[in-house]
Amino acid sequence: GEGACGKCIVRIAAGDVDEVRRLINRAMLVLLLVMAPLVAGMAVMGDPVVRLLFGRGAFGEPAIRLTATLLFCMVPTMLTEVVRMPLATLFFAQGRPGATIWFGVLRIALLLLIYPLVWQRFGAPGLALGLGVTVLLCVALMMTVARRSLEHSFTEFWAMGARLLPALAVPLLFARGGWW
To answer: What SS3 state is found at 73?
Structure first.
């Protein structure tokens, strides 16, 4: 983390745009490789972990189940945040901080828009999934803008994501399907 950030700062100062792009791509891949199994494991083992941490005292069975469900529902948000942070760094490195700010405003506006639509019917899990969808949309938009305006390629990232997604989906499906 710190080593890549330091290298990125040095390359930005030197004006080496290609090396900055390579470092950002590498950071996205490493973060995804490290965080995806951790996030999936947290979602799969959410119920036992929440029971262990919060099963005593004031937390009853409904609160434990809701917390474990929310942990599972936050998987899309956590995975897209792993991608969003290096993308934000890329925009700042290219002297385009306004794009990152606009994406943040868009994310908040979308969340405020979906809140009344999902809260009454789906409660906190619906809002957590809605947050995941809004962050995913903003990251997709950020990647599109980075590809078009900054001429940034995400070929390696998509190839890795295509291989990693099925590997993550299987334990998540088993965990929530009750087969685990």
So the answer is: helix
Sequence length of the chain is 180
CA dihedral for 99, 129, 169, 62, sign (positive or negative): positive
**Token pair listed for 125:** 């899990």
Long-range contacts of 49-56, Cβ-Cβ distance < 8 Å, separation of 24 or more? none
Instruction: Please check whether residue 50 is in contact with residue 67, taking contact to mean a CB–CB distance below 8 angstroms.
Output: yes
Q: Write out pLDDT tens, residues 31-83.
A: 888 888 888 888 788 888 888 888 777 788 888 888 888 888 888 888 888 88
Rg (CA), the chain: 18
Cα–Cα dist 151/4, whole Å? 21
* Distance, CA of 83 to CA of 21 (rounded, Å): 14
For the chain, give me the number of helices (H) and strands (E)? 7, 0
